[in-house]
Amino acid sequence: MTGTFELKKQLNSIGLFCIIELEILKSKNKGISVNYNINDIEDFKIAIEYGIHLAFENLLLKGIKKNYHISVTKFKWITIDTTLSCVSYSSCRAVFNAFGFDSKISNPKINDIGEFIF
């Protein structure tokens, strides 16, 4: 299954940008494994994996176990507007998208002044 999320927001003087696509496959192994099929992502790997793990912590409450292999198939960022928080948030939301929980899980979220609430 594929999960995508596009964060493109301007809140006053704060820009928030991240586009990510994940291919999620059931795995025989326990846990989550992440593979990166694209270059120029080294600085963001920890944020991507944090967002993915955060999503699966929420999905456990919905009965979805953590036995998946995830490939990052698309990742776009902008130097000024992409932070580690943007990437974590977008990764988490991409996992929710893949499982059909886009609007059913409220956190993480972005408040009115551009702060991320995990």
Describe the structure.
It contains two helices and six strands, in the order βββαβαββ. It is of the alpha+beta class and 118 residues long. The chain has a single domain (2-117), classed as Ribosomal Protein S5, domain 2 (2-Layer Sandwich). Strands 1-2-4-3 form a four-stranded mixed sheet. The chain has a two-stranded antiparallel ribbon with strand order 5-6. A hairpin with a 5-residue loop joins strand 5 and strand 6. Helix 1 crosses helix 2. It starts with a strand and ends with a strand.
Total domains: 1
Q: What is the radius of gyration?
A: 14 Å
Strand order of the largest sheet: 1-2-4-3
What do the pLDDT scores average to? 94
Strand fraction equals: 35-45%
The CATH topology assignment is: Ribosomal Protein S5, domain 2
Level-2 CATH architecture: 2-Layer Sandwich
- The portion of residues assigned to helices is 25-40%
User: Helical region count?
Assistant: 2
What separation lies between the terminal Cα atoms?
25 Å
Order of helices and strands: EEEHEHEE
User: Which stretches of 5+ consecutive residues score pLDDT under 50?
Assistant: none
Count of extended strands: 6
Biggest beta sheet attributes? 4 strands, mixed
Structural class: alpha+beta
CATH class: Alpha Beta
| Cα shape | globular
What tags apply to this protein structure?
118 residues, alpha+beta, Ribosomal Protein S5, domain 2, four-stranded mixed β-sheet, two-stranded antiparallel ribbon, 2 helices
Would you spell out the secondary-structure blueprint of this structure?
Blueprint: E1 2-11, E2 14-26, E3 31-36, H1 45-60, E4 67-76, H2 84-98, E5 109-110, E6 116-117
Parallel strand pairs: 3-4
Antiparallel strand pairs: 1-2, 2-4, 5-6
